[in-house]
Amino acid sequence: MITLSYFPGCSLTSSSSFYDRSLRRVLAFYEVGLRELEDWSCCGAAAAPAMRQELSDVLNARNIAIAEKSGLHLLAPCSACYARTRASALKIAGDRSTRDMVNEALSPMSVKGSLEVRNIIETFLQYVGVEKIAASVAYGIGSMRVVPYYGCLLTRIMGAPSSDDVEDPSGMDVLLDALGAVVVPWQFKTECCGAGSTATDRDRTTRLSGRIMAMAKKAGANAVVTTCPLCQLNLDLTTHARGDLAGIPVLFLTEVFELALFGSTPDSKHHLISMADIEGSVEILGGDSA
Amino acid sequence: MPLPSFLDEIETRSGVTVSVCYQCCRCTNGCPVAGEMEIVPHRVIGYILSGEREKVLASTSPWKCLQCATCSLRCPNGIDVARVFETLRQISLASGFAAKNDVAHFDDLIIDSVQRHGRFAELETIMRYRLSKGQFMKDAAMGLDMLRKGRIGLSSHNIRGRKELGAIIRRMRGHRDR
After folding, report:
1. Among B85, B88, B48, B43, CA closest to B66
2. Would you say residue A288 has pLDDT above 90?
């Protein structure tokens, strides 16, 4: 079976550590091995490049150098980590002066930029496969009417080809459909949640994330599904400002996998918007239905 | 006075060819925060073309940008507008225009954390930000709920290579182009 290098990133070791646990449980079920990057560091997110582009490239080059030594493809479930690592790898591979600059800064570490970086949707599609996923479903989640929310950074890495449509991605739709959820069409798949503004301007993330949650409600969904820890947190936090939007939990994609594979997830208590109704609606499928 | 070299400065630093803009406004139309900007995206590009350096750098527009890159994606001339806004932040920091900006301040604290620990320490960074702003009770209810549900990383992990990485970051921050 396949083994991937794994870059959890800062969010998955702190505010979204339950996403890390969920992801590990699901990938272990499919026998996808994860080897966590030895002593990885922060990708610098949006803060480093706003200060200085070279700083962003050096921060990412450090993780890329560690990953390249393993020869494995890298899984980065956080959208910021994925986008920054991937963009830097391509730049290091294609631009001599960037490659020289990061190698000089990080010496004796050495980096080529040859690393293949995958997000969690690509990981499921490429290393597990839709047929295997559909065949592994043990619990009925047909009462879930979900809107897949991709956020901005997952498909939009300037200068890097996207594995999905940039305006209307469908990779997560395909996975959710295979798991047995009802995928509700909507227009806000890639609208911005407000990103890192929560600390500096909470009203702004409330407004932007609130708009997305209101659209999910209008579309008739009873759950939003995402893969990005910052998107999940921003949408989840709307519960503190928008009482009218109560009742639509924001699940990580891997949590939907857990519901369909195992019938429940042990970490649902970490959701700010309760997912109890969703969990309660999961049905045990008959023994002969695969 | 308008400085014609502003366009060169932006194009050289960002690697983006801004001069192909024909002001179609698609960047502004797709921008989720255009309504909050003193100068909307296509006008920022327009002012870069006409060399209005100070007007652009002194505005809050570069700091309102979320870097969602919808503008870059939709530009019919392939201008990476988000990259231009990121470059404006860098220049505005280096030229002292962003001294009191909250976003720049918070970014600085994030990089501080990475310099010290190798990673972003959530609680420590947010507390430092709140203390520096004197916002002791801001968003307290939200913070308590997050604590209760385990949604704030309380401890900070120190990576083994933090000294080496910290030295690199310190050096790069010191050379902030002027």
Report:
1. B85
2. no
Mean pLDDT of chain A: 95
**Cα B34 to Cα B70: distance, rounded to the nearest angstrom:** 12
Residue that is last in its domain, among B28, B63, B94: B94
Tell me the chain B residues in contact with residue A191 when contact means C-beta distances shorter than 8 Å: 32
Place of tokens 């309380």: B154
Asked if this assembly's ipTM is beyond 0.85, the reply is yes
- pLDDT value for A172: 98
Distance from CA of B116 to the nearest CA of A (A): 11
Distance CA B4, CA B12 (A): 14
Integer angstrom CA distances of residue B48 from A50, A194, B4: 18, 26, 9
Chain segment A110-151, per-residue pLDDT in tens: 999 999 999 999 999 999 999 999 999 999 999 999 999 999
Same domain, B136 and B70: no
Q: Does B126 touch chain A (CB under 8 A)?
A: yes
Is the peptide bond preceding residue B76 cis, with omega within 30 degrees of 0? Answer: no
Instruction: Show the domain range for B113.
Output: 102-174
φ and ψ at residue A128, rounded to 5 degrees? -110, -55
CATH architecture of A130-284: 3-Layer(aba) Sandwich (3.40)
- The residues pairing with A207 across neighbouring beta strands, listed in sequence order, are none
State whether B75 and B127 are in the same domain: no
Residues B14 and B77 occupy one common structural domain: yes
CATH number, domain A3-118, options 1.20.1050.140, 3.90.226.10, 3.30.420.240, 1.10.3720.10: 1.20.1050.140
The count of domains in chain B is: 2
Mean pLDDT, rounded, for B135-160: 89
> What are the residue ranges spanned by the domains of chain A?
3-118, 130-284
- HEC assignment per residue over A143-193: CCEEEECCCCCCCCCCCCCCCCCCCCCCHHHHHHHHHCCEECCCCCCCCCC
For residue B132 the two structure tokens come to 């520096």
* Whether B135 contacts chain A with CB within 8 A: no
